[in-house]
Structure formats: C-alpha cells, structure tokens
Specification:
Number of domains: 2
Helix content: 55-70%
Bound molecules: iron/sulfur cluster
Structural class: mainly alpha
Distance between the termini: 73 Å
Shape: globular
Number of helices: 21
Low-confidence stretches: none
Strand content: under 5%
Length: about 425
C-alpha cells in the first residue's frame, strides 16, 4: 500500500500547487483546517476549508484518520524527513509521554474551539449561515518566508529527529486531536485476522509509535485514536495477521475495558521493541505544565504561530527531561529556556498592560509599556508604533507621534490604524 500513499501525498502537493497558481484570488479560497473554526463556527461562513473539515470528520467516522495518513501535507513533510534521516543512517527513537494526549487537545480548545464558540455566542456577533467558497483568499493563513521556513524545519525535521517519526502529529497537531473522536468510532480499523507470532514487526514500523502488537493481541484491533490508517503495520506483518476491516461500531467495543487501557502497563515493554522507544511518562506531571506555559509565552511573539510555538515548546520540554542526552546539555537547554520564557513573559505582560491602559485612554501609562516593547522587541512591529503614534498624538506630542507614524507606515502601510492616524495627523498639521 505504501507506494499508493506516496502517490497520494504527491498528488496532494500537485493539487496545492495548481490551487495556488491557478485559483489564487478567485474561485476557491483557503483550504485550511482553521477555516472551519474561524469562519464557520465563529462567523457561520461555509467556505472551502470548512467543507474540507466536515468531509474529513465524516470520512474519519468510516475510514479512520485516513486524511492524516494519506493526504495531510504536513504528514508528508515528516515522512520525507524520516526518509532523509534513514538515508543517512539516523533512526530517531519514539518518545512516549502523556503530552501526546494533552497538548494537541489544549491547542485545539484554547486557540480554536473556545474562542470561536465565544465569538459566535457573543450578543454582538452577527453569526449568519452563508456560503462563500472564495473567502478568504489562499494566502490568508500562510506565514511569511522566514516563519514559514522555520515552521517547516522545526515541525517537519527537528521534531522528527528529537521526538520520533510523526512527532508533530503526535505532540502538537490540533487537527489530529479534532479527529480523535471519530477515529475511535470508525467502522474500518486495523484488525487481527490471522495468527500472530508476537514478532513485533508491526509495532516497529508504526510511524505513530503505537504498540500495535500489544493492542491487536489484547483487543483484536488497533484502538489507539492516533492511528492514521497508513497500513504500514499490515504491510510489515510477515504472517499476514492484520487487515483493514469493517465492523459495525455498535459491536466493536465489547472486549474493551477503558480503565484497563488507560493504565495499560504492558505496552512498549516487549524486548524486541524496547530500544525503539523512550518513555518519559514518569515526568509528565512536570512536563505538561512546563510545555503549556512555554508555548503560551512564545505564541504570538516574533510573528510565531501556534504550530511553531507549541512545536518548539514540546521539543524543548521533552529534550530537557530526556535522560539520553547529557546532564550538561539538558541543564543548558533548561537555563536558556527559562531565560527565554522570562523575556517572553516580560514582553507579554508589557503588551497586556499597554493595551489595557490604551483602551482605558490612559495614554501616558500606555506609552511606558509600548516604549518598553519597541525597545526590547528584536524586530520592528508596526502595530506598536501605530499605538505609540496615537498615544503621543492624544498627549499633543506631535513630533513623537509623527516619528512613530513614519516607522509604522513603512511596515504596515494599509493598516486601518495607520490610515486613521494619517488623517488625524494631517488635521493637526493643517
Ligand atoms: S497502527 Fe498501523 S495503520 Fe495505524 S498508524 Fe500505526 S502503522 Fe499505521
Ligand atoms: S507483525 Fe504480525 S505477527 Fe508480528 S506481532 Fe505484528 S501482527 Fe503479530
């Protein structure tokens, strides 16, 4: 099946290219999972991305996370990274931690589900069901070249090297988390249909790090909701003991004891697979809060989006707690992480205070915090200079206002605040 998967991934990339080159601003807009949450749940707009997510959700109820294993371009990038590492003889180990359960769900609920449901339920919301396939345009959610390349390197390559094949899918991806529920209920699953010799070839090959042998021998099927229906385990089995088979979900969980599964201590212990996995589960209690705080403090700063911030947060957290690295290396990473988090915390606190004072029309207090931000921020950010331009104008400090207006105009010339500021300044100048 694997050659068909490669064809499928290649076709997806060709379609993305055609979409970007031919349909840029017209017929079909952005195909992003985010569309479903931002536009459909938050605003009621049924666009191309929303329809794709609805199709993915319902197809998962039938076929499992086929979308992740056969179509997702980010999955393809990680598979490519794995192939490159393999060519150089590098075999990253799979890290096990409960972060794979908590982190993707946290990202999904904190950034997409809760804010958009709140937006839709807000009395001031003008939620209205409508169909608009061309909205928003293809580029809307694409980051710039620098952040885009960094995301590609961190979430495509670094995470595979340090956390294992499909590290991003396991530890960060909120779309995978969204498809966990329908995966659990899916009618088609990898099932045990022959006799198993416990050779563990299926577990060794699973890109998601599922202990397939353990699951199929305990439950007669793969029950892990991270399974992406890639069929590698089926292809790997020398006994042809596995098949991708339909079963009515009503009769599918008769032999499953959930408590037993949640506290399953028999996974990943077989001698044949032991050296392929590193378990950090004993540190979960420290790692989960550390990783979430780290991600939150980084998110949104330096133009970094959710996927990159939480990709970096998971890599750094799991590296700090991974005994396979030297103590000196882990301690150094820890110290750098704490300094970086403190700096980001300072910036986020200043942002919060500055905007708060600005909204309360306390312009001189807001200026102190905005000045701190533009002084310490390593890159120029137009919106803070725009805010400063307004604050100084309100305090009648025209020269300072013009200085910040000029800087902001160079960075974000079409921003509505800049246009507004331009009008106010021209009135004052007259
Ligand atoms: S359990 Fe099998 S089908 Fe599921 S992700 Fe692992 S290898 Fe692929
Ligand atoms: S590869 Fe086949 S025979 Fe080997 S453990 Fe897995 S299911 Fe059993």
């Amino acid at each position: 099946m694997q050659k068909y998967r490669i064809i499928s991934f290649s076709l997806v990339h060709i379609l993305i290219l055609i979409h970007v080159l031919w349909f840029k601003n017209s017929t079909v807009g952005s195909f992003d999972f985010q569309e479903f949450f931002d536009r459909f749940i938050g605003m009621g707009v049924l666009n191309a991305g929303s329809i794709m997510v609805i199709v993915a959700f319902f197809s998962t109820l039938i076929f499992g996370r086929f979308f992740c294993g056969w179509l997702c371009h980010f999955g393809a990038v990680q598979e490519f990274a794995w192939w490159v590492f393999d060519k150089f003889g590098i075999k990253p180990k799979t890290i096990n931690s409960r972060l794979i359960t908590f982190l993707p769900l946290f990202v999904l609920f904190n950034f997409y589900i809760i804010p958009n449901i709140s937006k839709a339920l807000n009395p001031a919301s003008n939620w209205q069901l409508s169909l608009n396939l061309s909205y928003p345009e293809v580029w809307t959610f694409l980051p710039g070249v620098v952040i885009g390349s960094l995301t590609f390197i961190v979430d495509g390559f670094l995470i595979v090297y340090l956390l294992g094949r499909k590290g991003f899918c396991r530890f960060v991806c909120p779309w995978g988390a969204f498809l966990k529920l329908p995966t659990s209920l899916s009618t088609f699953k990898v099932r045990k249909t022959g006799s198993c010799t416990n050779c563990n070839m299926c577990t060794s090959g699973c890109p998601i790090g599922i202990d397939v042998s353990n699951e199929i021998n305990n439950y007669n099927k793969v029950i892990n909701s991270n399974c992406t229906s890639c069929m590698i385990c089926i292809d790997n089995c020398p006994e042809k003991a596995l098949s991708y088979k339909f079963q009515n979900p009503v009769n599918d969980y008769d032999n499953l004891n959930l408590i037993d599964f949640a506290y399953n201590k028999t996974s990943y212990v077989n001698d044949l697979i032991k050296e392929k996995f590193i378990s950090l589960r004993d540190y979960d209690l420290f790692m989960v809060p550390f990783c979430i705080v780290f991600g939150l403090l980084l998110d949104g700063l330096f133009h970094i989006g959710h996927m990159l911030s939480f990709g970096l947060a998971s890599i750094i957290t799991l590296t700090i707690f991974n005994n396979n690295f030297s103590f000196f290396f882990r301690r150094s990473i820890f110290i750098i992480a704490i300094i970086f988090m403190s700096f980001n915390g300072f910036l986020k606190y200043s942002q919060y205070k500055a905007i708060n004072h600005f909204n309360n029309q306390e312009y001189s207090k807001a200026i102190q915090y905005f000045e701190d931000i533009v002084f310490y921020y390593p890159i120029e950010v137009g919106k803070y200079h725009a805010y400063l331009g307004v604050c100084y104008l309100k305090l009648n400090k025209i020269e300072n206002s013009i200085k910040h207006y000029e800087i902001a105009k160079n960075i974000i010339p079409d921003n509505p605040n800049i246009i507004q500021l331009e009008k106010l300044l021209s009135r004052v100048r007259r």
